[in-house]
Amino acid sequence: MKSMNWKTLLIGAALGIGVSAYANAAQTIRFAHVDPADWTSSKKGAAAEMFKDVVEARTDMDVKLYPAGSLGDEDELVQQAMDGTTQVVMVSGAMSKICPAAGVLSIPYMFDSAVTAWRVLDGQFGDQLAQHCLEQTGLRTLGYGETGFRNFTNDVRPIETPADMKGLKFRVQDIPLYVKMVEALGGEPTPIAWSELPTALSTGVVDGQENPVGTIYNNNLYELQDYMTLDQHIYGTDFILINERFYQSLSKADQRVLKKAGVMAGYMGRSIQQMTTAKGLKAVKEAGMNVYKPTPEEMDKFRKAAQPPVVEWLKKDLGDESVWIKKLQSAVDEVEQ
């Protein structure tokens, strides 16, 4: 009987060590993104630092950061998160590839300001979209950040209305929605890889491009372009995602901390993005770039030209999930009212 008891205790101890080792290993969170690490200028870098500080201050978990695409591009990061090899990732465009409903956030001229977008994402619509994407992907949205409003630049002439875009070649991402948008506005969309953009601009392969102000400034694109139009055609959203299996393995108390950390990280990313936009806008003006802000009447022309054809295309592309277009529009209308 004593021998049996000792065997039982030894087996139990061995199992306990194994479980303890697994639990300890599970307490290290890998957080990856593709932006630079510097929190003072990088929206994702700032969000990641905030997440790390909050989690490590309020739990026994450690957060290891992998910035600047050190673990791969956004498509690779979301796959790692779905597999569970990387617990938390922060991505933007890649989200609509795994959860198509997220693509409705890229409808041109949907948001009149960043504040409107924040209220929509932080409200019922954002909660419903997060739940829908969780069910589709196994990734829980802990918070929403932003990549900023995208604006057109070119080196030919000022753009004040869609008519001014006619005949101009614009570099766009290889995303059908962006191609449809530029076509609808009268421009000639030309999908080109990001790495090839400076050469394409300097050699005249394209006349212009579109990106957030911070990106235009930080990558010196303003040196290759004379005109910027602050039309804010697409608002870019960052998603802070966590593997659901990992999340459910945590205590309720730790889950609450991670959720709070995700929300705070999103706020931090938004703040840095707004700061870099303001600084970038001031800098490009001081460098001599012609910056034009369309009037409300001119903005209405941009909206009426681009939004209907893109929405029609998106309805066909999304199929049954096109219901999210109406949900988003209703949420925007409610916030604006």
From TrEMBL:
Pfam families, A to Z: DctP
Q: Which InterPro entries match?
A: DctP_fam, TRAP_DctP, TRAP_DctP_sf
| One of the GO biological process terms | transmembrane transport
Q: Which UniProt keywords apply?
A: Receptor, Signal, Transport
**A GO cellular component annotation in the UniProt record:** outer membrane-bounded periplasmic space
Q: What is the lineage of its organism?
A: Bacteria, Pseudomonadati, Pseudomonadota, Gammaproteobacteria, Oceanospirillales
Where would one find the signal peptide in this protein? 1-25
So which domain of life are we looking at? Bacteria
Record flagged with keyword Transport: yes
Protein name as it appears in the record? Tripartite ATP-independent transporter DctP family solute receptor
**Annotated family:** Belongs to the bacterial solute-binding protein 7 family.
Keyword Signal attached: yes
